[in-house]
């Protein structure tokens, strides 16, 4: 039995150049007025019957419907109580849709599809598989039509936001990613046109149909919101690991960090191909949705790829750029006289190099929030730069200095200034958002578009995350100050 790897993470690392959102409008990819819950065709085929007819299994108490916590789309709901450890769905090997069509179905158009896919950067793997999806969507009598006809007509991912809605995310790393994706889709529309200009109908991967940026965006979103990356080892044709594929019906399961079901890849003795199935991990009450864990994802990735955010997301973080000038400003705001963040001594510099915050190829992206509360490298750097006694610093190893749980490794007053500097950094970060938490909260109560609502929820979560970090650090400062007072008394 092979368990799929941390399901479907996209390997996009946002560049945190600053936390100020650039203000520029863009062309909206499409003007979808469609409701997010409408299917591609008004009367889609019966997906459950199709899976069963093709030799798959669907638990008798599962139905497709609108889930408990949201009305934005359809998911899988238990119509009766389902016990823990039950098989919920089992897909035969020919149902998942991956980039490579079966040998028998390859024609002249396959080479062109590969050529187009080769022009898509790896980080946009969803668009690669999306091209294949568009091919099947354009194919009359496609084997996957029962699946495709059930796909949503529209998606809530931010590539479909208007320029104003994107601006309202107020957070540079995600604004950068969204704009990058939109720009790529608009450019890729031209590549598709050029590549397919003189191609005969027979060899045309999209059966002669025009594929524009909005069709490409639909396909990319259809894949990024639904695809799973499964272990390739168990897959046919000796294919490599982590193959993204669309899993009909299974992909209707929504996400939770506390899932009640999981995906399992099961090797059948008789065949080299793996069967993909969903099994309940606990009892699922009547009326509850089947939920899978998509991975330990921050809200940036959830919004970009799936089109939703989780308010109490324990994996959400805020990105900052490690910058001596900014840290000097923060520690002066914290009451320090002459901080040396922009002019470290040679031994401090050496340690910054070890932390990969200095030198060629340094990674200056640091984070606040998430399970660690403060990025270990950032914490160690501040402790070190505020610790002007080389011998005291070098008594500790770098891993100890990176833990917030290590109690005042360089002394009480070093620790208090370190934490105050971090708090001041939070204040600066909060100040970069054009609106305050309370304003966002009241905007959310008004009548706004669903995309605007998502944008505001996203930035609101970033701000509450910063204030949560501040509260936590303040609590620590207070404890330490009390101790310091007690010591000197
Ligand atoms: C999936 O779950 C998320 C987070 O709970 C929610 O925002 C979203 O609307 C859900 N989607 C559907 C289709 O119910
Ligand atoms: C900065 O460096 C100067 C000169 O080495 C030193 O006197 C001062 O204490 C340092 N400041 C801090 C906050 O460590
Ligand atoms: C660092 O110190 C801690 C505790 O003192 C120890 O457990 C750990 O192994 C050390 N790590 C290295 C890399 O020396």
Structure commentary:
The protein has 489 residues and is of the alpha+beta class. The chain has 2 domains: 5-306, set domain protein methyltransferase, domain 1 (Alpha-Beta Complex); 317-488, Alpha-Beta Complex (set domain protein methyltransferase, domain 2). It contains 16 helices and 12 strands. The chain has helices at 47-53, 108-117, 125-138, 145-148, 163-167, 172-196, 213-224, 299-306, 324-333, 346-354, 376-385, 390-394, 398-401, 412-431, 437-445, 450-488; strands spanning 57-58, 62-66, 74-78, 87-91, 228-230, 243-245, 254-255, 261-267, 274-280, 291-292, 317-321, 365-369. A hairpin with a 6-residue loop joins β8 (261-267) and β9 (274-280). The longest helix has 39 residues, at 450-488. The radius of gyration is 26 Å and the shape is elongated. The N and C termini lie far apart (64 Å). One 2-acetamido-2-deoxy-beta-D-glucopyranose binds next to β7.
Descriptors for this entry?
single chain, 489 residues, alpha+beta, set domain protein methyltransferase, domain 1, set domain protein methyltransferase, domain 2, 2 domains, 4-stranded antiparallel beta sheet, two-stranded antiparallel ribbon, 16 helices, 39% helix, elongated, binds 2-acetamido-2-deoxy-beta-D-glucopyranose
